[in-house]
Automatic annotation (TrEMBL):
InterPro entries: A/G_cyclase, Adenylyl/Guanylyl_Cyclase_3/4, Nucleotide_cyclase. This is Adenylate/guanylate cyclase domain-containing protein. It comes from Azospirillum himalayense. Residues 223-358 form the Guanylate cyclase domain. It comes from the Bacteria. It holds the Pfam family Guanylate_cyc.
Length: 414
């Protein structure tokens, strides 16, 4: 009779932790994002014997609108769920009565609650939800980044008896490596967020790809958008700072939202003016598609501005008026600036011309004016409003307005 086959001994906690750490440092840090890394990490823990039902990772962000982003992994879910929390939610009851507030705000290093041994009332409302899902044990711990920023990771199991000592020892052993990988991914996301916020998605992608040397750039054909708020100087003189900032933000939200919703990219804000572009695609050699997008964006912006003005008038606030100019031409798109301070933007005669055309809007009492180049691509929507001199050019230029007026120039010049 053959001897029974030998059974391989179960790996020790040290061996299992070493395997997870090696995976984190060699493969996990190359995950394309938090979601993929979170899913692969949790499944690695399960393969090492840790009986996970759910895991949550919460990371505070440096973002103009989002304070915290959380990733929810569930054993039977197809993908990791992402939830964001806006600035201000840190004072909400939902947050202040959560285990994460205890760890982030109160400085606790870790929490553990044997849910299967607990009855209401629970110290944290979320425990009722977890028990309803069959959870038996809950563990949460802080993950520190360089500089002491506190992040939180929680694990839940539904195994009777909860997590074993070996389970918790394994998790504790891999936390430093996990923290290093999470920080790498967080810095990558931070760089993308900051660039998207301050220079735009398309420009940010170029910068992250390495296009950062001063003087580099490319010639691009695009429809240029330039808008300016009327009467801003007078408003700035008499409105309180907070009200003025809110007014500008609301105005740029309308203008920028219309541009970005149609594939345009904001280049820069210049006081109360905004410069944006709609680059021509290879499939759009005449620029008709780009011009159509820009005109659609202008009409949407004016419609939204009229709605906002109706609200402001109802509250007895001054209404807003603006001019929008469109021109199609070639620009140089690239890095310009001093040795230590660069601006990734567009320059060229076309940029100067579109700003000059916008200057005619008030004089001609038009919300939207375009150059002949735009009119040629979208002739059915535009009508000539004559030839007019503009600063910097020897000869007058022909400008065009919308056949159907959108919004009005009603109001008094400030």
């Amino acid at each position: 009779m053959a001897p029974p086959a030998a059974t391989a001994p179960a790996p020790s906690v040290d061996d299992a932790a070493r395997e997870v750490v090696e995976w984190l440092l060699l493969e996990g840090r190359h995950a394309p994002g938090f979601e993929q890394m979170m899913d692969r990490f949790c499944r690695r823990l399960m393969a090492s014997g840790v009986p996970l039902l759910r895991a949550v990772c919460a990371l505070p962000l440096l973002h103009p609108q989002i304070r915290t982003i959380a990733f929810f992994w569930r054993r039977n879910a197809e993908q990791v769920e992402i939830a964001t929390r806006a600035h201000g939610t840190e004072t909400s009851d939902e947050y202040l009565t959560s285990p994460f507030a205890t760890l982030i705000e109160d400085g606790a290093d870790g929490l553990r609650y044997r849910l299967e041994q607990m009855e209401p009332p629970y110290p944290y409302p979320v425990f009722a939800e977890l028990k309803a899902q069959g959870a038996t044990d809950y563990v949460a711990m802080t993950v520190l980044f360089a500089g002491g920023r506190r992040n939180v990771l929680s694990f839940t199991t539904d195994r009777p008896g909860g997590f074993s000592t070996a389970d918790l020892a394994l998790v504790d052993a891999v936390l430093p490596a996990l923290g290093a990988v999470l920080e790498t991914l967080a810095l990558r996301r931070l760089a993308t967020t900051v660039l998207d916020t301050y220079v735009g998605h398309r420009t940010g992608a170029r910068i992250l790809s390495g296009d950062i040397r001063r003087g580099t750039g490319a010639n691009v054909r695009a429809v240029l958008w330039y808008c300016d708020l009327r009467g801003f100087t007078s408003l700035a003189d008499r409105l309180p700072r907070e009200e003025l900032i809110a007014l500008l933000n609301g105005y740029f939200e309308i203008m920028g939202g219309a541009v970005e919703s149609r594939g345009g990219e904001i280049m820069k804000f210049i006081g109360d003016a905004m410069l944006a572009i709609f680059p021509l695609e290879e499939s759009d050699p005449t620029g008709a598609a780009a011009c159509t997008k820009a005109l659609d964006a202008a009409q949407e912006a004016l419609t939204d501005m009229a709605a906002r003005n109706a609200e402001r008038a109802a509250w007895g606030q001054p209404t807003l008026r603006c001019g929008i100019a469109l021109h199609m031409g070639e620009v140089m798109y690239g890095n310009i600036g001093s040795a230590n301070r660069l601006d990734f933007t567009v320059i060229g005669p076309a940029v100067n011309l579109v700003s000059r055309i916008e200057g005619l809007c008030s004089r001609l009492e038009r919300n939207v004016l375009t150059s002949a180049e735009v009119a040629e691509a979208c002739a059915s929507r535009l009508v000539s409003v004559g030839w007019h001199p503009v600063k910097g050019l020897n000869d007058p230029i022909e400008v065009y307005g919308l056949k159907e007026k959108t919004g009005t120039n009603e109001g008094t010049d400030e």
